[in-house]
Amino acid sequence: MAIKFQYNKTSLNDLDKKLKARTRALPTIKSKESALRLEVKRAKADAEAKDRELDGKLRQMDGFARLFTEFRPDLIRVKDVRLEYYKIAGVKIPRLAGIDFEEKSYPLFGAPLWYADGLDLLKDLVRIGIESEIFSCKMQLLDTARKKTTQKVNLYEKVQIPGYNEAIRKIRRFIEDEENLAKSAQKIVKNRHAQEEDL
Q1: Which 8-state DSSP code applies to residue 159?
Q2: Which among 94, 95, 88, 93 has a CA at the least distance from the CA of 34?
Q3: What is the mean pLDDT of each run of 10 residues along the chain (199 residues)?
Q4: CB-based contact 68:118 (threshold 8 Å)
Q5: Do 22 and 30 touch, CB atoms closer than 8 A?
């Protein structure tokens, strides 16, 4: 990325301001990147833990699998999943606030005894599954933000800051050369005037 500039003091001041802004922002962006990297690891561990918990519950349910052939699937459904949002290093992250289930009534004496426990087990499985999805979503959001922040750090460190330094160096040399030429021209004119006066 070539930095556009002109060989004058206005451009020099403008580039100097941009360089100072990026130099001041770089440590903050680096700390944001490391915080995001840590949060991505934490979210990944949480998602894996929820997946293991879900697998454990499903294995635990293997003994009940034949019983669930009698279960009426219309007895329970998810009515609403309530989420709340919070920010981690400027990234908006969802968190499970609650799950609303809609349960149909069933005859207590006509239904198998395990229906109440089956409903609780299904609610628990749904909750764990939704939490697992939320942790996966959290991990993706944080990882995307981390990648963007890493790109910005690299842009500042490897492209813009060195580019601005180089442009400022070129402008300063040009201005110094112009000033030296102007001083030399003044000396030449002064010497000519001095020679003309001597004659």
Answers
A1: I
A2: 88
A3: 82 92 94 92 90 86 68 78 90 91 73 70 86 90 94 93 92 90 87 80
A4: yes
A5: no
Structure tokens, 13: 């001041």
Distance CA 91, CA 88 (A): 5
Q: What is the pLDDT of residue 23?
A: 94
Answer positive or negative: Cα dihedral of 158, 159, 161, 166: positive
Helix axes 9-61, 161-198, angle to 10 degrees: 180
CB 173 within 8 A of CB 9: no
Q: Is the Cβ–Cβ distance between 112 and 70 less than 8 Å? A: yes
Q: How many residues does the chain have?
A: 199
Helix (H) or strand (E) holding 94: strand 91-103
35: which residues sit within 8 A by CB, 6+ positions away? 88, 89
Residue with tokens 């160096």: 169
Q: What is the pLDDT of residue 199?
A: 65
As a whole number of Å, the CA-based R_g of the chain is 35
